[in-house]
Amino acid sequence: MIAALTGVPRMAILAAMNSRPALAITFVAALLLAACAEKSLLVGYEENENFLSFNHPFTDAAAADVRVRAERICGLRKQAVIQTSRACSLEQCTTNFQCIDAADAAKYGR
User: 0.85 exceeded by the pTM?
Assistant: First the structure.
C-alpha cells in the first residue's frame, strides 16, 4: 500500500473512489506514474556468458547504479568489469559491460 495512505481504512478509500470517479482516475494515474519511476533493467545476461546489458534512464545516478550492479554480478564470478559500450537517446540509455579476469583487466589498463 502507498505510504501516504498507511492508516487510512481501505473502505474509506473505496467509498471516496465510488462517489467521485475523477478521484479514482487520478488515483490510478498516480499509481501508473509511480510505476514509471527511475528504474534500471538488466536486459541481457546469460549465466554462462560474460556480457551484461542494461537499459536505464539517461541520468548520472542511473549510470552509476548500473555500474555498481555490473560490478556486483561480475564480483560474484570473481571477475572485474569493463564497460564495452553505451548508447543513449534523450531519455534512455543502453549500457553494456563485460566480466573479465582481473589479470586481463590489468593487462588492458582497466
Answer: no
